[in-house]
TrEMBL record:
Keywords: Detoxification, Flavoprotein, FMN, Monooxygenase, Oxidoreductase
Entry annotated with the keyword Cell cycle: no
Catalysed transformations (reactions): 3 propionate 3-nitronate + 3 O2 + H2O = 3 3-oxopropanoate + 2 nitrate + nitrite + H2O2 + 3 H(+)
Gene3D superfamilies membership: Aldolase class I
GO terms classed as biological process: 'de novo' pyrimidine nucleobase biosynthetic process; response to toxic substance
InterPro entries associated with the record: Aldolase_TIM, Dihydroorotate_DH_CS, NMO
Protein name per Swiss-Prot or TrEMBL: Propionate 3-nitronate monooxygenase
PROSITE patterns cross-referenced by the UniProt entry: DHODEHASE_2
Needed co-factor(s): FMN
Family to which this protein belongs: Belongs to the nitronate monooxygenase family. NMO class I subfamily.
Top-rank taxon: Bacteria
Pfam families hit by this protein: NMO
Length: 350
């Protein structure tokens, strides 16, 4: 299927962003689908078995509600990603130990690389009932897009800039995903394609609308119904929202992250590589303040470097050493049922 009108029938004005690392759960996705949104599950960091279980759970919930559409998001391994300067890694590790004060056993001495089991997860998603498959961090090879299409699913690539949008227009993707500069979590920047410009999400949507008829989903920093309305008016078919759902009752957000969203309202968000090596927007804390400038851009090696200390920080309730992913609208993330959040955001649509 590649007809824009047919695709738009499956899209929804509200899209629940995939949120890897815990927040995305089948219950959250089902609640948002039930309220009229299009939910995405996050495959990133999950084992293939957990992804299979999450998809099965969501399919189970949705069958009861007349088979609503959903999507799954995959992290694409960077072909250059296994390159890591061991000396720079060791220097950064020493800084991390100094700043966090954690025990050295929690921080791997050697860089770890993984392709996030991309092939296995792709196979699982292709065999699932998902209508959409979105790809983050890189564009997969054309053969991958063909496989997803052959499985009867639609493909979404993300861009953070005009050159990134141009590349999607020229690609086999069916939908243009746009992530604005205020978005929480990892920037979906495709290295070597997106540039460093910081255009607003509205400007990027207008640009994409002007050059392509492909449907657009866009988001980043949405703080309420007015932002949804503005993005739809600018030409988006769906508005992708993540942060406002982080405190939803059905989300799997870590307890220390939840507490920070509630208590750190007076803090700014910053874009930092300190936790994973890739730029991501988070509520500023001691870790990012001390390490953002020295973090080398090795992903996923830095993700694994900080994984143990982040886990421990969450357990200890230490928000200063945790990756507090959040978009600029985070003060509006309230603890309530996801359906209430979705309905409030969708009220803008009528
Ligand atoms: C906790 C968290 C985890 C995220 N994980 C993913 C992910 O796995 N894949 C992805 O494409 N985007 C991810 N994102 C980015 C979202 O797709 C989306 O761009 C962002 O949530 C939109 O901005 P907002 O958070 O301000 O609403 C994540 C965002 C957050 C806050």
């Amino acid at each position: 299927m590649n007809n824009a009108q047919e695709i738009e029938k499956l899209l929804r004005p509200l899209v629940l962003a995939p949120m890897a690392g815990g927040p995305s759960t089948p219950r959250l996705a089902a609640a948002v689908a039930g309220a009229g949104g299009l939910p995405f599950l996050a495959a990133g960091y999950l084992s293939p078995e957990s992804l299979r279980a999450d998809i099965a759970d969501l399919q189970g919930y949705l069958e009861k509600s007349s088979e609503l559409p959903f999507g799954v998001n995959l992290f694409v391994p960077d072909p250059q990603g296994s390159r890591c300067d061991v000396e720079a890694y060791s220097d950064y590790r020493a800084r991390v130990l100094e700043v966090s004060g954690v025990s050295p056993e929690l921080v791997p001495a050697e860089p770890i690389w993984s392709d996030d089991a991309f092939e296995e997860k792709l196979e699982i998603v292709c065999a699932s009932a998902a209508s959409f498959v979105s790809f983050t961090f890189a564009h997969p090879a054309p053969a991958v897009v063909e496989r997803v299409h052959a499985a009867g699913k639609l493909v979404i690539f993300y861009a953070t800039s005009r050159p990134g949008i141009d590349a999607i227009v020229d690609s086999g993707a069916d939908v243009i995903g746009i992530q604005g500069p205020n978005a929480g979590g990892h920037r979906a920047t495709v290295f070597g394609v997106d540039d460093d410009s910081n255009e607003s999400v509205l400007e990027l949507v207008e640009y994409a609308r002007g050059i392509s008829c492909k449907p657009i989903i866009a988001g980043g920093g949405v703080s309420g119904a007015a932002d949804v309305r503005n993005l739809l008016r600018a030409g988006a078919t769906g508005v992708q929202v993540g942060t406002l759902f982080l405190n939803a009752q059905e989300a799997g957000t870590k307890k220390t992250h939840r507490r920070a969203l509630e208590e750190f309202g007076g803090r700014e968000t910053v874009i930092t590589r300190a936790f994973s090596g890739r730029p991501a927007r988070a509520i500023e804390n001691s870790f990012s303040a001390a390490l953002s400038d020295s973090a080398p851009g090795f992903y996923p090696q830095l993700h694994f470097l900080t994984a143990g200390l982040r886990k421990e920080a969450n357990e200890r309730g230490d928000a200063e050493n945790l990756n507090l992913w959040a978009g600029t609208g985070f003060v509006h993330a309230k603890e309530e049922p996801a359906a209430d959040i979705a309905r409030r955001l969708l009220a803008a649509h009528d």
